[in-house]
Amino acid sequence: MLRKNVRRSALAVAATGLVVMLGLTACGGDDNGGASNATGPNSSAGEGQNGDHYPLMIDNCGYQMTFDKAPEKVVIMQGASVGEAETLIELGLEDRIEVSAQQYGASDIPGMAEKVDSLPDDGLNLNDAMDIPAEQVLSRQPDLVLSTYSGGFDEKQGFASRETLENAGINSIVTPPNCSYGKTANITPQEKEAFTNGSVQDSLDYISLIGQIFDVEDKADQLINDLQGKLDAVQTAVQGKEPQKVLIAFPSMAAMNSNGLPAVFSGGIYDSVITEAGGTPSFPGEPGLTATLSPEQMQAADVDLLVVGSWNSGDMDIDAEAQKIFDANPGWEASKSKNYVVASDGVYYGPASVYGVEKIAHAAHPDAF
Hints:
By secondary structure, this protein is of the alpha/beta class. 38% of the residues lie in helices and 13% in strands. Strands 7, 8, 9, 10 and 11 form a five-stranded mixed beta sheet that branches. Strand 3, helix 3 (83-90) and strand 4 (97-100) form a beta-alpha-beta unit. It is globular, with a radius of gyration of 20 Å.
């Protein structure tokens, strides 16, 4: 069995690569290739003859996937994410997961961390990129491999490519807003734009996509309706309120910053979670910021609410870490009022992003609820 502390360490390392590369991949790549545009789930699926659900055709990051039936054996790559595993769990598809490398140690969805932790990981030995190497994926003979980003299929990192998987009769899906991230060629302008403008809505769209692939669209629709109801309730509550300046910082990921500061996440999904919560990002639209952020930039930021990120709730004293940040940045309004909230997977893609919106909204506008 894979030791859990090894997996958590691996996730932290993978997350480092994720954010450092974020700004690079959003504008890199070859625009001259012939790959199809990444499309939403509704526009990428087709019904079979006589109205049957299958065969189901999915255009994902320029790769044409055909599903003749609902997948029965799924491998979930780690990719510094937990959203893919959580989506399958929320749709009641745990029994389809052959092996998952995803784990976060904490969740903004009550009880979710334990469910993710209980997914099978038997026999996994992660490679140098801290994810499942090609031979271990292929040896399990799955019918579907899920990766949060295209880099999870990069042969140069020791992973099975999408072509290799296809030749073995294995379908593969990348979480659509991350098509351009880690893709080595044929990145389209639409994929770049989707990556840059990632949002909470993408989390709901992914649920719809998985619902189609597994023929559980009714469950997916119900889950989406429930989550949309939460978002609508927040929007109603914060309507007309003065937007609060919000900063997301992960003290446990300080290795990502050249000055030893907490990792500060901005751009894409992070900005979307803040905006949906009735806030404004302190560093809007700067996905590569955390690598080079200076103490002077941090101190000069406008911050009304600090979101302290925790990817493993037992790893640190959250109150003490928040106080350290406040002490280093005494000019913030948040430092003066000691205004902070703890979030974990709620700032990433996946169903938890809606719960992250709720948490931040309640902290930013407590009088609205």
